[in-house]
What does this fold into?
Amino acid sequence: MSNIRPGVDDNPADYLYLVKVNVPFDDRNKMIRVLKAIQAVQSEKMDPARIFSSHRLPDGGLKPRLVVADLHLNLLVGFGLRFFLGPLGSPGRADEQPVPNFPPGGSFIPRTPIRFGMKDRVVPLYLRTMNASGDQGWIASQLTARNSGQAPAPDDLNTAYQAFLAQGEADLLLQIECEFEFLVLDLLDAIRALVIDPEGLQIASIQRGVTRGDGKAHIGFFDGTSNMQQMMREDPLTYRSKIYLPTPSAAYPGQPIEVRDDPRYDGGTYLVYRKYHENLEKWFSDDFQITDFYGKTYQGEEARRHAIGRNPHTGQAISRASHRQLNDEPDHTEINLSYNEAHALKARGGQTAPFMGPFPPVPVGHGNAFNTQDIRLRRRGVAFSELNLQTGKVDYGLHFIAFQNNIQQTGFEFVNNIWLINPDFRRSTDGLMNPVGEIITPLEGAYYFVPPEQHSYPGDVFFE
Amino acid sequence: MARSPRQSQAKPIAKPVPPDAVRVWRGFRLGTLTPADFLQDLGTIFIPVTAQLQRLYGLTAYLPTVLPSSKPEGVPDEIALVFYQTQQAYNDTSNIVAGRAYSLLHKTVFAFPASLSGFPVVLGSALALDQPYYLFAGEVDWRGGFTQVFVGGRPANTTVQQFSGKLQRFFQREQKLQTRSLDGAIFCVSANYVVYWEHWTSEAASLHGHISELPKYSTRVLLQPYAAQLVESSLTAHYPGLSGIESKSFNIIFPR
It folds into this structure.
């Protein structure tokens, strides 16, 4: 694919910052001014001709480095549900109808934004409040632990869950990345000085991600081994059909077929962000164990290989039949032959065939079929390691970022809810994400709509 | 998600108080303390003990903000709104040994006479430097709803008179524009800085406000909402206190 969109289709740069920004006003003209000011910073800092440092050529000469082409400085702006309908708990967010993951169904009407005078646009169809299986369970575990082993009352759990959701959201998400961290900070500081501070915006949080340099996540396995690379290279049409909104966009379920999202959103995509803490002490301990569907328990290194389904040194998938390493296949479909409890397999769904789900329960003889390979997303996560400067302690984890054109039914939420956290799917809960294992803990997350590449300024499709 | 179950179990029972029943605190770090020690003492002693002690004497809401250490010279290091049931409830703490001990504790972390505290008065036609003001007369429970704070410094090219004059006009406009959703507003202008707190019935309602215009009149140091933060309320509990408090605004949750 020769026309990649930076920040989505390419691999993440070594340094990636996620800046959550809230807008404490609803004024349309002021919002447009803010977005234009972001564009002005972007135009200056990401000028294709801008150079920064140089590298030495074999002949001893020096070649300047271009910040965009060589150092991959990039800014991607995502727009959260808050941006369109206000913060969680506000009237604009009342009675939200969740999009069912599986089977599809329901009846949805287009939602008109209530902020910034966007009355002639709609809220992108799949931009909804995050609804990830496992989150409430993790929160319940934390509350129980803090309350001397006593499980929280349903009201208290719901209050804590709503706080978790609200804290994770933001109006805008700025994804800033570069191979040089200084250039990330330089761009961020310019946005702060020229946009955020003078326009009275609020920085809700700044997350710093840094690649390890060895291609692995902190859990010791290569990340992104199977990530649509071949499809992007050899079949960009299919790749884009999974990641970007088409024209016409998806019809609204239960509505006349002409009711669709604004055609100006054509080429946009949805960004899912999740911050996961990784308990590496537990993960790398000799006591780490998982049990497969048949009740067989694995421990230590063997358990970790079962949990992921790959060899941590080579990245190769491991056969659940022979336990041997498998050779690469097109689009890395060899992962479908790995352990049923393996994270890599559960996230890909298994055999390339129409799949009739045994979930949710349906009458005998009935089912809802889907093709497992329709369920694809482009992952673009980056590790984090947060150093406590007082204690020297480091917290490890992953900023999980994924792009797709339907979060709930062919993207993150489907993969998480129907496959990973569902013990009925492939008869095993995901070996890595299993809440019982307490290896992975979600700290926050939210969904964002990333409009098509701007012609004037980020988000111009909402106003022009 | 940093809420404890006990926080959510404490069902909100509103305790609105008059707009002048609040100590408006602007604290400057004691010169003999390093910034790191100052933050540690605030987080592990001063902020928790404010809730632990003063709740016994009528404290209804406590909203401290710890400024970034990179703040301009002349801007406070910590500010707070400390609400009591009445002004008298606060005044009575000087008759109580623990109340006097709490008052004395300020001198272990804050510099005097630079640090200031006072009750606000309603904003009229004039504005005096270092006098806290409130804009609206209604009783409000600042523990609930949505509160945000703006702290700004005086721009280098602006005189004190220009600075206070522009801010006075801004606050007088706000006072006239009061909506039912914006039910509480307190500010204080000094020669070098302005602090402004506003209380809304909800965050959604706050989107109709004008706080984001304040950077026009002062150099922004901080603009942020308050986040609920539970502290241990028992005077005998083993409790480490708060850490990582710099550049944060807390709505301290305690039994009341």
About this structure: The interface with chain A takes residues 1, 3-6, 8-9, 148, 202-204, 206-216, 220, 223-225, 227-228, 243 of chain B (CB under 8 Å).
